Amino acid sequence: MSKIIALTGLCGAGKTTAALIIQEQGYQYLRFGQIVMDVLQQENIPITPENEKKARHSLRQKHGMGAFAIANLTKLSVMCQRGKVVIDGLYSFAEYKVLKERFQDSFYTLAIVSPPKIRYKRLEERCTKAEDTHTLFRPLTRKEAMQRDYDEIENADKGGPIAMADWTILNTKSLKHFEKEVREFLCQI
Prior knowledge:
With 189 residues, this protein is α/β, with parallel strands linked by helices. The protein has one domain (4-182): Rossmann fold, CATH 3.40.50. The protein is 54% helix and 13% strand. The protein has nine helices and five strands, in the order βαβαααβαβαααβα. The chain has a five-stranded parallel beta sheet, sandwiched between helices. α2 packs across α3 and α4 (67-82) packs parallel to α5 (93-103). The chain is globular and about 40 Å long. The relative contact order is 0.22.
């Protein structure tokens, strides 16, 4: 079975940047949260923090707290047959348990953490790029980011995967230092 690395952490911590670094090492990329964007686009609903929150809650009400892992399980299994996979955005502890049970020793988690002050500044400074068609790097105001943090901690049980991570990177320094830390993690697994 191919290796699967699931990235977890709060908004603006550096998960997508880590995923892109890992992808450069031959891993295929799977974004769990893309399901939310797909639902909004299919229903012609504007992509806003509030609409994303409603879509996330709706998916979890219909399919349980492991909804994103369950919805991506078939796709993930197919990708594993082709090689290594990095998952951008493991959200809930239920998702963690679904993936750990299914993939066992092939499944690794990497928590990316940064203090709120740093994450909120990063999110406010993001600019929306026209080529970012999957809305990977959306800017959020401080208030939007704080509301998302509270929602993910209180309603998505995001603390579980962060606490159970195989490796944790504190992302408070330069991008170069962060890249070094991610590559060090890859050497350890």
